[in-house]
């Protein structure tokens, strides 16, 4: 019988298997039985701009469309150059600094310079 691992959240060993998940009886945290290798794939995922060019950390890009910032009256204008981008996981793949502030942008609205 394979050993059931301790809870990754509270580190207690009062855990059990329920179908495809392990469950902690103390804190109620659930995690999958199979090792999740998808988390490593997000960091190595290829991010491409609107033209299909691969983006890397530190690249310079240009906005290809005016973008309205939600919750603000700011509009990021087409043609604005953004230097030294940083790639992150999630829906908005690019983290950058502009004169208007720090923003998370989708790569589909960017073109590599």
Structure notes:
- This protein is mainly beta and 113 residues long.
- It contains one helix and eleven strands, in the order βββαββββββββ.
- The longest helix has 6 residues, at 38-43.
- Helices cover 5% and strands 31% of the residues.
- The chain has two domains: 1-36, N-terminal domain of TfIIb (Single Sheet); 45-112, SH3 type barrels (Roll).
- Mean pLDDT is 86; it is low at 36-41.
- It is elongated and about 55 Å long.
- A hairpin with a 6-residue loop joins β8 (86-87) and β9.
Largest sheet: 3 strands, antiparallel
Q: How are strands sequenced across the largest beta sheet? A: 1-2-3
Give the CATH topology of the largest domain: SH3 type barrels
What is the helix tally? 1
User: Using DSSP, what is the number of strands?
Assistant: 11
Q: What is the overall shape?
A: elongated
Q: What fraction strand? A: 25-35%
Corresponding CATH architecture of the largest domain: Roll
Q: Secondary-structure blueprint of this entry?
A:
Blueprint: E1 15-18, E2 21-24, E3 30-32, H1 38-43, E4 61-63, E5 67-68, E6 75-76, E7 81-82, E8 86-87, E9 94-98, E10 101-105, E11 110-112
Antiparallel strand pairs: 1-2, 2-3, 4-7, 4-11, 5-6, 8-9, 9-10
Task: Write a concise synopsis of the structure shown.
The protein has 113 residues and is mainly beta.
